[in-house]
Structures are given as C-alpha cells and as structure tokens.
Write a structure and sequence with these properties.
The protein has helices at residues 23-26, 37-43, and strands at residues 3-7, 15-17, 47-49, 55-59, 68-72, 80-82, 89-91, 95-99, 105-107, 123-125. The chain is mainly beta and 135 residues long. The protein has one domain (3-125). It has a two-stranded antiparallel sheet. A two-stranded antiparallel ribbon has the order 2-3. Strand 4 (55-59) and strand 5 form a beta hairpin.
C-alpha cells in the first residue's frame, strides 16, 4: 500500500511515526499498562501530524461558531478554527493525501491519550480518488 502527501501552498508538514510511550502508562506500577499487548500495540499505530504553531482555545459551551474562540501565538496564524460549531475545533492539514485504489485514510486523535474533558473525533478521508499527482 502506498500513501503520498502532496503539500500545498508552500506549507510544510511535520509528521512522525506515532510513539509507543504514554505518560499515563509510564506512571502505572511497574509500567503494568504496557503488558496489555492490544493497548501497547495501538499506541504505535499510524502517524502523527504535529501542530506547527501554538494557540489557546476557549469554548463557552454554546452551539454557535462564535462559541469557540481561538488565539494563535503572537506572530503566527491559528492552526485550527470553529468550523461546525458545538465546540468542535477543526484543524486544516495543508496537503492532499493520495492512496492506492480501495484504500482510505482513517484520521483520528491520538490513541490511548486521555485528556481532561477533551475528546478527539475521527473521520474517514477518501484518498483514492485523485487520478494523478498534483502539478
């Protein structure tokens, strides 16, 4: 299987293999959480696209787009925005992914990384439709 990322508009893409280690698993007695093979294997599944700029976000609990506000670090652009409302924070990835026919890309948040009140959504990206590379 082949997956190619075509980066657009002069952007860069910071990508790395998903790490096996998890801070909360490191804190378990004798690192016991790593002894669960399905849990341990899921940690290193896939790749991570890293956010290249810092930001703060605040949601007031409302459903409107304006209910979620994003403040990028000084001198940078916000890497995410309120696109759907309902507290959903959307990150735009500056590339087009292309895969072999019949292969799709499952995009999800980090596996086995609990967050305080924040949950990552998942989506299936159709990546096999592009007939040729971008010019």
């Amino acid at each position: 299987m082949r997956l190619t990322a075509y980066v657009i508009d002069g952007h860069t893409l910071d990508i790395r293999p998903a790490p096996r280690e998890r801070e909360w698993m490191d804190r378990t007695d004798q690192h016991y959480a790593y002894r669960c093979l399905p849990l341990d294997m899921a940690n290193a599944l896939g790749w991570e696209l890293l956010c290249q700029t810092g930001f703060n976000a605040e949601w007031d609990g409302g459903d409107a787009l304006e209910s979620l506000r994003v403040w990028p670090d000084p001198g940078t652009a916000a890497p995410a925005l309120s696109h759907f409302g309902y507290g959903v924070l959307t990150f735009h990835v500056p590339c087009l992914f292309r895969s072999d026919t019949g292969v799709q890309l499952l995009a999800t948040g980090p596996l086995n990384r609990p967050r305080d009140g924040i949950g990552a959504l998942s989506g299936l990206v159709e990546t096999d439709w592009s007939p040729s590379p971008l010019p």
